[in-house]
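User: Structure please.
Assistant: Input sequence and predicted structure:
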Amino acid sequence: MGDNSNESLTIIQGGKSKSTTKVRDRDYCFYCEIFVLNFARHLFRHHIYESDVQKIISKPKKSLERRQLIAALRKKGNYLVNSKEVTKPMRKQKFTEHLPCTDCLGFYSKKLLWKHKKKCTGKKSRNVQSEAQNLLIRHLKIDEKLKEKVFPRMRADKISLIAKSDYLICAFGSQYLKTHREQHFANVVSRKMRELAKLLIETKKIDPSINDLFCALRPNHYDTIVEATKVLGKYDSEKDRFETPTFAMNVSTTLKHCCHIAIMLALKKQGPYMDVETGKIEADLKTMVNLIESNWKYDISSQAATDLNKKKWNKVTIVPLANDLKILKEYLNKRSLEAAKSIKEGLQNIATYIELLETVYCRVLLLNRRRPGELQRITLYDYLESENNASDKYEEFDRALTVSERILVKKFKRVVIRGKRGRGVPVLFSQEVQDDIKLLLSVRNIFFTATSNLFLFGNPGYENTIYGYKVLEKHARLSGAKNPKAISATKLRKHLATLSQIFSMSENDKEQLATFMGHTNEVHKKSYRLPDDVYQTAKISKLLILMEDGKGDAFKGKSLDEIDLDMNEELEEEFLNNDKILDYDFESTVNVNSDCVQQIYNQNDLSQAGPSGFQKIEQISQLNVKNKINKGKKRTLVPWTVEQKNVVTKFFKLHIKNHQPPKRHECEKLKEKHGDLLHNKDWLKIKVFVQNIYSKK
């Protein structure tokens, strides 16, 4: 029987003979590059002089070592076939993706590869699937920096394999990485390469003649790319809108960059473009760029931009509650004290270190309202080298500062870091935070074996940083805040800029605030102002009501803020429906003005002017509203008699049982029935009394 023949078997069933043919699996020989039937026998017959075969022969027959050596050589041969199309996995499983082991070259199920890797090498590996996929494209000439920084971060699926295998997509990723050299941009490069790969996959489905992105970037394939973009943008032809308009808008810029890169590669005769007609390719690609610039806005961008704006129109702006910020701050201070105390007492485990590290990060973010990525990437060098002697440098400006401001300059450490678009943005560290960071640095060498982690908020045991937005989300949830989802870095930044409008700030002050937050003054006015839904409802509605009532002339020369409508009854109802209702009256009106606001911020500790400061500001605003209600009305507290309480409780027993406040006409009906008894109680006091009963106040 030869190597390439099948085995014939005769099976006797019930006295009748049945001839069948059993087809055995064949393996690919690494040496002669053909499929063979009996792999071990083929080796001993035809490749006995090979060093690996000699090593197999030296082992005893039927021994474990001999079988393992034959299996290793079998995997090595089958890898040549499986690297093109997986036909010989170690275990056949339907509808399962297979990837090779980087050590033994055997193909295993993608999901179970980690288990084999651990058994094969005896070690755990973090990026098993990425390493296996990178092995399949090791023969491609790709930028080594791209392989080292970006490829390990990419999810090991079909999309990533297409992105890694396409020369033009890799050239785009390499150029983008050279332009944006910061470490965290590796994730952005990965995302953009996957977007191009998705687009290429869709264009291949529409037109199978397209082989790669270089082939797709031809004028005759422009309509195909537009159609593929609509598929990826989830365009609904019936509703005439994009479900994901951002991708549809941004991919055109990426495609134009790819066209320019392809022209450069064609002119240089690099990679697979050595034999192309340079003049024709250059003309086609420039035509493609012109098509995108002139027609993309009509085919894609205009509709996508409209859909994107529509989503923002009725989006509710949520800012964190001042009380929640106070709860979070108290929680962070408490956890920081506990962690710092444990470290000082010698309990130097990694959990305690991370606890203090995360709480310090959240406290700095809460004070400065920085973007999480900017803050988490502060280097240890930048923090240590920043000097805190601003007052010594600018002694001539001392007279321009108040006493409390001079104290703050000395107390806070200022570190300038890289912000958005390369802008320098400052970060302030309070004295308490500086002490905690000093404690962290004193034990840093215990938890950081890798000297390559140069970040102040580095992740112990790894070379990256902590994930700022996840850390803030985690501690906001654990703090016990009523609405932890409202406490995010973006909402905190909007909270700061929005509440800053209640101050009488000069243009210079606004410019300094915008610079501190890391954006221009125009962006501050456009995006970080009082939300449109609040402004238009609260401010513009006053103007519309005056026009409707024909009272516009009465407020001639006044600003919208100075116009005060008579809304007493509605405001009383609003405060009565509030959770915090007490049966007391103001003895006199309280005058609150900008001096009170200034007093809050003239504290020695600037941290008091953070969340708690804003809480006081909101409380002051509420007092102002109440004062307008009670202006000119001096009321005194009149005690309730036992008989009055019994009558009201009995009359409104169903309201108390159902936790339902009585209406005005119901209270007046009770007063008519017991006029003499309730002569000193108006309907509003009766309503408040009933609410306080079922509220248990």
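The longest strand covers residues 7-13.
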